[in-house]
Amino acid sequence: MNPIDKSIVQPALNSFLNREVYLHLETTNGAYAAHRQESQMTVGAYIRNGLITYVRGTITGDGPYRVGLKMNSGWVYAEGLTDFELNQEGQLLLAGHDQEGRLAVALELSLEPFEL
Questions:
Q1: pLDDT band at 36, cuts 50/70/90?
Q2: For the chain, N or C: smaller number of CB within 10 Å?
Q3: How confident is the model at residue 114 (pLDDT cuts 50, 70, 90)?
């Protein structure tokens, strides 16, 4: 993955506008955060291959970044994004890593289902 370049990520988000796309969205401070004290609550959220259509996609911030996907019936939102990749399958992969390289958030879009 590479550090986010908004001039690349924004057109990539636009390429999925008004199309059915598969969404992977994950946040965690659990398994990737073994350094945390046991007294702190572990949280996380995960969805893979959720099928959505969005009418506006925006990346904002100066790093870490935020991405919002506006659907007709609501929003998908991810914050803390630091890195991206456009892979050969046409998938847009966005991730947020902490200072030690551990994954904290991932937002990925694809025209085909993600592997399980």
A1: low
A2: C
A3: very high
CA distances from 90 to 28, 64, 116 (A): 25, 23, 17
CATH of the domain at 17: 2.70.180.10
Nearest to 67 by CA among 58, 54, 55, 56: 58
Domain count, the chain: 1
Report yes or no on 33 lying in a domain. yes
What's this model's pTM, rounded to 2 decimal places? Answer: 0.89
According to the model, what pLDDT value does residue 50 have? 97
Token representation of residue 3: 């550090």
Alpha-carbon dihedral sign for residues 15, 17, 23, 26? positive
Q: Is residue 116 included in any domain, yes or no?
A: no
Domain housing 85? 2-110
Is the separation of the CB atoms in 90 and 100 below 8 Å? no
